[in-house]
Each structure stands twice: as structure tokens, then as C-alpha cells.
Amino acid sequence: MTVSEAVVKRLFELCAERGITINKISTIAGVTQSTVSDIVNGATTNAGIATIKKLCDGFDISIREFFDNPIFDDLEQEIK
């Protein structure tokens, strides 16, 4: 799994835990729906840390909490 795939998976996981949609978290976090849609649909493969921070704020978690998840334990090597 790539980093971008893991980020998407984590976003869906957090939304499911809270019973909200991807569109709802984008509204809560103040991130445009098109930006979040691009991340989720793979159009953007490098979500910026500022965007992830805003989404974390919307989830009321820290960046550390976002990445402290087994999803990120076995990522593919990005350097090829």
C-alpha cells in the first residue's frame, strides 16, 4: 500500500468511526470538497500536510493520532 492509499483508508476509517461522510468532514475541517474528493479518488497522490492537519482538526485528533495506526506500518517503498 502506498502512503496516499493509506491516507485515504485512514480518512474513511475515521469517518466510519464518527458516522460522517467524506463531504461532511471536508465541511467541518474547512477543506474544499473538491480537494478531499481529489485525495479520495486518487487525483491527488500527495496530500499536503496542511490539508491533513485541517482534516485532523475536523476529526478533533492530532496528526500523531492520525498516523499512529497500523495502516501505516507496512507501506511500500516510495523511492524507485
Brief characterization of the structure:
The protein is mainly alpha-helical and about 80 residues long. It has helices at about 5-20, 20-30, 35-40, 50-60, 65. Helix 2 (about 20-30) packs across helix 3 (about 35-40) and helix 2 packs across helix 4.
Write the layout of secondary structure elements.
Blueprint: H1 3-18, H2 22-29, H3 33-40, H4 49-59, H5 63-67
Write down the overall mean pLDDT: 94
Largest β-sheet summary? none
Please report which band the strand proportion falls in: under 5%, 5-15%, 15-25%, 25-35%, 35-45% or over 45%. Answer: under 5%
**Which percent range fits the helix content?**
55-70%
Query: What is the terminal separation in angstroms?
Result: 14 Å
SSE run: HHHHH
Q: What structural category arises from helix and sheet content? A: mainly alpha
Fold and architecture overview:
The structure is a single chain. The chain is mainly α and 80 residues long. The chain contains five helices and no strands. Helix 2 packs across helix 3 (33-40) and helix 2 packs across helix 4. The model has no long low-confidence stretch (mean pLDDT 94).
Task: Identify the notable features of this structure and list them briefly.
globular, mainly alpha, 80 residues
